[in-house]
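Below is one record:
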Amino acid sequence: MTVGTIVWLASELMFFATLFAAYFTVRSVAPDLWASETELLNIPFATANTTILVLSSVTCQLGVYAAAKGNAAGMRKWFIISFVMGSVFIAGQVTEYAELIHEGLTIQSSAYGSLFYLATGFHGLHVVGGLLAFLIVIARTYAARKFTHEQAVSAIVVSYYWHFVDVVWVALFAAIYIIR
């Protein structure tokens, strides 16, 4: 299961690399568009939202440590906290989208809008996938009579995915919000 997840994450890395390549390619041929469109971004809000997502990797890892010790209750506690933090991140993205759409930045409005929503939207879908994975791992531990090694491995594999999603977001955040 672990090796398969790592191979799958490598393919996901290629997917996001393609989005980054498109983003930087179009940005290089339309720098004036980038200058005007990025003014609409709420960087303090996005920074706070990013902080929440990054900290969810810490709580996720604490859950992994608990799982490695055979502590199902500890793993559930930290994974539930990670789930809540990831959900807050998604709610923050929805809020940001609503504000940007109100400002006129849509997927159809410009090449910048298209790439912004594609990159952040696909990332958001990956976060939702991670949230579902947290729920599955948590539910399996409630359903089982005994916390098993296989359940601990499942928690570790979910953490690989979650950390991957967080690292991708840090790179997206840097590319979209920091690099001008």
Summary: The chain has one domain: 2-178. The domain at 2-178 is CATH 1.20.120.80 (Four Helix Bundle (Hemerythrin (Met), subunit A)). The first helix runs from residue 2 to 29. The mean pLDDT is 93.
